Amino acid sequence: MLLALSLMSSSHAVAGDADTAAPEAQLQTVTVTGTADQDAYTARATRSAGKLELSLRETPQSVSVITRARMDDFKLDNINQVLATTTGVTVEQVETSRTYYTARGFDIVNFQYDGVGMPQVFGNVQGDLDTALYERIDVVRGANGLMTSTGNPSATINFIRKRPAASLQASASLTLGAWNKRRVEGDVSTPLNDSGSVAGRVVLVHDQSDSYIDRYAPKKNVAYAVVDAHLSRDTLLTIGHTYEANRIDSPMWGALPLYYSDGTPTNYPVGTSTSADWSRWDTTTNSTFAELTHHLGQGWNVQGTLTYIDYKSDSDLQYVYGTPVKGVGGGLYAYPSQYIAAQQQKLADLAVDGKFTLGGRTHELSFGYSYANSRLTDRSNYGQGIGTELPGQSAFDGRYPKPSFDASVDGSRYDDTRNTLFLATRLNLADDWKLLGGLNHTRARSSGNSYGTSKYKSATKTTPYVGVVYDINREWSAYASHTRIFNPQSEIDASGAPLAAVEGKTTEAGVKAAFFDNRLNASGAVFKTSQDNTAEAAGKIGAKTYYRGVNAQSAGIEFDLSGQLSKGWQASAGITRLSSLKGDQGQAVRTYVPRTTARLNTTYQVPALPALKVGATLAWQSETSIDQIAGVRTVQSSYATLGLMARYQIDQHLALSVNLNNVNDKQHLTSLYWTQAYYAAPRNGSATLSWSY
């Protein structure tokens, strides 16, 4: 059921094959199709790489799928936890409320919901994005200019929302864990009329806890409602809304200083925090979408999607900067500020796909148009007392008094608009040869100012996508692909003109395999990725910074496996090795990115006790580092973290599961993306009682 629901809106291939099928029959067919895959760690098909529904073996690019089953087994309740277990992705959690992600050495800024792109204004993710709303999350590595109009040659993350089921289904769970964690989830799907042509689903989440970090206490409420209405045998209307609110007490703005004035590492206790007792960071997101899918007949479909997102942030924060004096304290200074932001996004997407015959063979075609507008307004109200020295260890006790936030004011107001036309086709060249090609033509423009700096940028480009797949036999295939992407930028050069757009490209080749009727997918790839003309500060003219464009390249190999190894044994595993990540002069760049990562997630249904499932998750990464000042370098040595899980099915409806995280209690920094950092959680665990109907 899970796979069918996640693909329901994008393809309706099963439900729409028979023109004479009644609406309720369509829903029943979708439900039955996916039943065997409810515990799967892989997907049979995806649209995340090329606008066309393809199996992973038919997709000429590296793809990882994180299924609902894997998220449930290992309690991957937020996007950071999901991506930390995903092949080739590193999670750079620079603060308690802001996170960057990287793949193949570059920042991930391309996010989609059901294949519709969401431009990232900030370049990072704020708040704690819950995963209870999604059936599946796809990660396509490399440049993906066909699916995303602009961005970096890193990866695209596609969130596949839950959709209504045909019959009444319900589930609920209660999780209790370390640091007073309490999480309650509810998920109900039901037909809303006698015929079953209208169905709805509601997901509710409440999650709150204290923390191993001093004073830090996050709280989150999530609500998601979606309705499917079959207006006719060929037309489906879907309307949904998501509400997500994060209320965080004493978050860190910035993190911990990593070295003393004598150059030695600080090595603070794991729970150390620079936040103040009065610090808070509240974010609220409301997102509404409407999707209309119509089967035109003869295998052709048209789908239109409208989305409106309203995001608000409100915070009182304390940043601590400077270099502490070893054994004495001091050397650190206060920087209080109040930050308020509002962002609205309007998105529209229209896509047509179908099959055509040429040269006696059947081919596939997809084309369409997308529009995205993002408007951001933010304001910083700076607090009185900026620059006040914090004596002794007072930077870490949270007692700095709350100031009035009226020392000065600054902020941003800018608008970003992107218009895209795309065309993709899959040509059946021969029985064993398939060619996937396409073009993406995008016009991107921004206007406005941010903290006294112009945000004007404008670029129009056409980016190609080409991939070829050769079927070696029924299980194995070989592939090669070349993809491009670009990203406009507003930074100016020494003459005062905006820099030309950043340009990224990825070339990769590899082999893929699908075993056991596509229940197990495996791939191996070699890749080369480059990102050219990225802005880097080059100097100042008066008070204004000017920039130059710099180039960087990465190359490496990757292995990914996901699915059923044998009856009752599910696994996902991956290794990524960046053999090089260098700049214009051959120098190592982005040293905060681990050159090698390994991920393993596996569960096993015990044959002697079928009600018991046990599993483990292992994440390893190589050494990372960052240069602080001349002669001072912070190094995070290589490390591995181990997680364990066990689930016992008490009866048909009730189950109890236990999850242990960082079992080996490895102390490590969450990121070296910035010159400050903080420590990841020590050993912890949770227990979940779940009920389903």
From TrEMBL:
Highest taxon listed in the record's lineage: Bacteria
Matches recorded under Gene3D superfamilies: TonB-dependent receptor, beta-barrel domain (2.40.170.20), TonB-dependent receptor, plug domain (2.170.130.10)
Domain TonB-dependent receptor-like beta-barrel span(s) in chain numbering: 247-663
Compartments where found: Cell outer membrane
UniProt entry keywords in alphabetical sequence: Cell outer membrane, Membrane, Receptor, Signal, TonB box, Transmembrane, Transmembrane beta strand, Transport
Signal peptide: 1-15
UniProt keyword Kinase present: no
Membrane topology reported for the UniProt record: Multi-pass membrane protein
Domain TonB-dependent receptor plug, chain residue ranges per copy: 56-154
One Pfam family of this chain: Plug
UniProt similarity note: Belongs to the TonB-dependent receptor family.
UniProt-recorded name of the protein: TonB-dependent siderophore receptor
Species of provenance: Duganella lactea
